[in-house]
Amino acid sequence: MKKPNYLIIGGTGKTGRKVVNSLELLNQNVRVGSRSASIPFDWNQSATYGPVLEGMDRVYITYQPDLAVPGAFDAVSELVSIAKSKGVSKLVLLSGKGEVEAERCEQVIMESGLDYTIVRANWFSQNFSENFLLEPVVQGVVALPMAEMKVPYVDTDDIADVVVECLLHEEHNKKIYQLTGNERFTFPEVCELISSATGREIKFIPVTLEEYVQVMKTMDLPEIYAWLIEYLFSHVLTNPDNEIITQDIEMVLKRPAKSFRNYVKLTAASGVWNQAVHLEN
Ligand SMILES: NC(=O)c1ccc[n+]([C@@H]2O[C@H](COP(=O)([O-])OP(=O)(O)OC[C@H]3O[C@@H](n4cnc5c(N)ncnc54)[C@H](OP(=O)(O)O)[C@@H]3O)[C@@H](O)[C@H]2O)c1
């Protein structure tokens, strides 16, 4: 039987690059979908959807910046319709746990008539090292709202491993997996963990959502990112469902979810949180 061809959208991103690595180690045929790939793919230009889907059998979909933003539903709908016309057989969608807006996009995948798996992830551990929370940690001052929220952060290694399983094996068809870590932490607790692992003081300052949004508006951020961060804090983190710890990682991978404490140790050892200190030296 012919080996399937895999398209990994966002294949150089936080989860996508790990999915690409694992599939390549398994000697699978992999194509990266991104603006800088050899066949450029841009969510904002639907004319790029057809060429990248040509000849593909199974597709991992990560939408940038987030399935909740205006325009995501139309873009995902168009991609799915072109994927069908090109003979794609299976879709695996990365979605956000507790994100009601993202569920509209999930519906498009579930009603496509193709095989599918929905992978709903909680907040990534790597938001502190590869995303918008890296800079405050490097600067040593983390000012955030919702100080009391307890988040079961999920490691992108686990998300990628689950996605690879779903892409490879039929038993995951028509399933919705909800991925979380196995321990919950508030933002002040995260700062304490990072402080003790790096040996630097990472100060936590509680602010209101209004204060946080005001500060973001003074920064040079694209409008959609400021909107998205406000949405994530006001609608997603406040969703009580997001405090619930699930066992789906262990169910799919037959091993426990990776620990957030260990993520902090490994990331501290990588030096990424000491960038400023290194620059001064
Ligand atoms: N962060 C969280 O805590 C969290 C939690 C749950 C769900 N999610 C979901 O995760 C998804 C993002 O996945 P991720 O974090 O793995 O990816 P990511 O790291 O945010 O994405 C970066 C990748 O996307 C590509 N990219 C960026 N803009 C693009 C565009 N306009 N068109 C095509 N490709 C583009 C980049 O390559 P180029 O620069 O070459 O284009 C790169 O390959 C979002 O939909 C979000 O809702 C995130």
From TrEMBL:
Domain NmrA-like: 105-233
Matches recorded under PANTHER family: PRESTALK A DIFFERENTIATION PROTEIN A, PTHR43162
Pfam families from the UniProt entry: NmrA
Record-given protein name: NmrA family transcriptional regulator
